[in-house]
Amino acid sequence: VSTVATIKAVDVNKNLDAGFAGVKNLIFSGANATTTGQQPTATNFSAVAIDFGAVTLVNFVAGVNSPTVVLTLYKVETVAIKAGTAESPPLMTTSTAADLDMTVTGGAASKLTWSTQPVSTVAANAPWNAFTVNVTDLYENIASSAVTVTITPSGCSAGSASTNAVAAVSGVATFSNFTAVCAPPYPKVMTISASA
């Protein structure tokens, strides 16, 4: 999700500091990277996206950022975004009352990921422990989806009473009645894949 942020330099009484001008080194914080490693970003004065936690050059005119800063968040979470000057500790930072509260929700369903993987060793023709597959967006956030997920074995066959197709509930497909039938001799090696 992206949003345009307005950043104002104010004094302790919340009066705009019109003398705060020029390019300032800011660091944005409060949002986290996705499991795929995609970092939240803020654009600098040249409209280049900079990762949160890195120095971002922001221009100010009469106490207000100009041009605009675009914040882009990727991970599903509710966060409080803060901006502070780059010194350690920062000379100026967003107060808790003035932070930017944002809620990020999952995007469109894009791929499948294992949530709880099947166990690596099972008894032939016996029920497996339950396992789950997530329907996720591009950044592996769970998508709100009811798509049917199908498990396909290779090297063995699904058991006749096995449930190998399950409709996802809020993006999660749980397989609790899956079995595989393998012809002797044992042990056998099989792989399974999930598709939707």
What are its keywords?
196 residues, mainly beta, five-stranded antiparallel sheet, four-stranded antiparallel sheet, 0% helix, rod-shaped
Description:
The protein is mainly β. It has strands at residues 2-5, 22-29, 41-43, 49-51, 55-61, 64-65, 69-72, 77-85, 100-104, 111-116, 131-136, 148-154, 157-158, 165-167, 172-175, 180-181, 191-195. The chain has no helices and 17 strands. The strands form five sheets. Strands 6-5-2-8-9 form a five-stranded antiparallel beta sheet, with no helix packed on it. The relative contact order is 0.16.
List the helices and strands and how they pair.
Elements: E1 2-5, E2 22-29, E3 41-43, E4 49-51, E5 55-61, E6 64-65, E7 69-72, E8 77-85, E9 100-104, E10 111-116, E11 131-136, E12 148-154, E13 157-158, E14 165-167, E15 172-175, E16 180-181, E17 191-195
